[in-house]
Amino acid sequence: MTPEEIVMICTSDLSGQVRGKGFPVSDLESRLVKGIGWTPTNSMITAHGPIAPSPWGPFGDLVLTPAPETRVRVDYGSNHAAEHFVMADIMHLDGTPWPVCPRGFLKRGLAALKERHGLTLKAAFEHEFLYDAVEERPNASYALDAFRRQDRFAENYLGALKQAGIELDTFMPEYGPMQYEVTVGPAVGVAAADQAVAVRELARGTAFREGGRASFTPILRPDSVGNGVHVHFSLRNANGAPVNHDAKHPQGMSKTAGAFVAGILEKLPAITALTAAGSISYLRLTPNRWSAAYNNLGFRDREAGVRICPVFGGAKADVAEQFHFEYRAADAAASPYLVLGAIVAAGLWGLDKGFRIPAVCEGAPQNMTDEQRSNMGIVRLPQSLEEALDRFEGDEDLAETIGADLKAAYLAHKRYEAGIMRDLSPEDQCMRYRAAY
Ligand code: GLU
Ligand code: MG
Question: 284 CB under 6 A from ligand 1?
Fold first, then answer.
């Protein structure tokens, strides 16, 4: 018997899980054209197993139409199957986009950004995760010994990313127990989210072949630090030139970037439902955890909802090229397409409105008075998934970009998930998410 390689066409769905269907590699060429069948109700499968009440039931047919440029093939040697998958858009059978598809949502937002403002988005995802083949001990933060103890995982992971055409920026032991962080180079448009899917899957794929497990759960335990997903982003004009920096502004923000960021800040309480998508995401989004608890703009502040990032290189630095922002209220319980799509939808709304450059918040919002916060438009982010979903539901400004079908499906899915978690202790919820992500 000779093993035959299988390829999967996948979607990163409403639950942030990557699901799809496989077929013999010999059929790849024809499948890249015709795709593979898919079912609407699959979108209601929660990360924890049970299926949320589906508006479609057993009815309907869709097709996963692959985007060939997203194909990932990693050879893990003769003792293991190769990792081979390609990401897809979920389409109707007539080839029109299915409005509930997360990748389609991001593409819609990016197309509107280009059409209405002549802009593209460049983004890089920074991911924190657990690698459980190392022992849990307290003195491992950023430690060379914590790096050493993951042994070949990082080297094989780097090799896998390279085979997938993804450029590793940094890999490091993070602060928390068993926690590591991976950052990859930026990409323009939907490719940044495609990459983020591959970054997660290849960490899981490499860990599995090393006999361990990588989990991108939002938080290990109620008392630990979180696993953040920090999205670095900047805007480019039609010629590909950056439009974020203006030396005349005290913190260097241009009018264009200011309007985009102002939209994000104002909509942060509504879009956390999409970017911090688990019940335990809200254990992470609390003050003094270096995550994000308010919709504030910080200058190099690692607890801000959106942070203005530093520029490296001293006097020789290309400031305009480097200057960018970081969205910190995201985690990997959310599909990267929904995360980036939400950032684009809110930023686009800010540009449409022509908002002024927002003021930078100095100091921690939790230490400010109510009046100081309200003068700056700073509010606490939702403190539970249910609250976030209510905020998301109540927001009308982004409704058109999000689309009624996606919004309704997402709310039904996530409210059902919140219901599964409602009677579990925070510790038990953490165990569920750790296993699911
Ligand atoms: N672990 C923190 C989070 O939950 C981030 C720490 C850092 O700034 O890298 O977002
Ligand atoms: Mg970090």
Answer: yes
Task: Report the distance separating Cα 194 and Cα 393, nearest Å.
Answer: 27
Give distance in angstroms: CA of 290 to centre of ligand 1.
Answer: 5
> For ligand 1, is residue 56 a contact (CB within 6 Å)?
no
CATH number corresponding to 6-93: 3.10.20.70
In the predicted model, what is the mean pLDDT of residues 242-270? 97
- Pair of tokens at residue 295: 């919709």
With a 6 A CB cut-off, is 285 part of the ligand 1 pocket? no
Helix (H, G, I), strand (E, B) or coil at 288: coil
In the chain, domain spans: 6-93, 104-436
Ranges of beta strands (E only) in 185-250 are 187-188, 214-215, 229-236
Q: How confident is the model at residue 139 (pLDDT cuts 50, 70, 90)?
A: confident
Compute the distance between CA of residue 85 and CA of residue 313 in angstroms, rounded to an integer: 38
Give the ligand whose atoms come closest to the C-alpha of residue 226: 1
- Token output for 23: 């077929």
- Reading the block at residue 218, the tokens are 């939002």
Query: Residue 303 Cα, ligand 1 centroid: separation in angstroms?
Result: 8
What are the pLDDT digits (tens) for 4-28?
999 999 999 999 999 999 999 999 9
Q: Write down the pTM of the prediction.
A: 0.98
DSSP state of 63: E
Residue 290 Cβ inside 6 Å of ligand 1? The answer reads yes
Architecture of domain 104-436: 2-Layer Sandwich (3.30)
Question: What's residue 423's pLDDT?
Answer: 94
Centre of ligand 2 to C-alpha 128, Å, is: 6
Q: Is 226 in the pocket of ligand 1 (CB under 6 A)?
A: yes
pLDDT at 156 over 90: yes
pLDDT of residue 295: 98
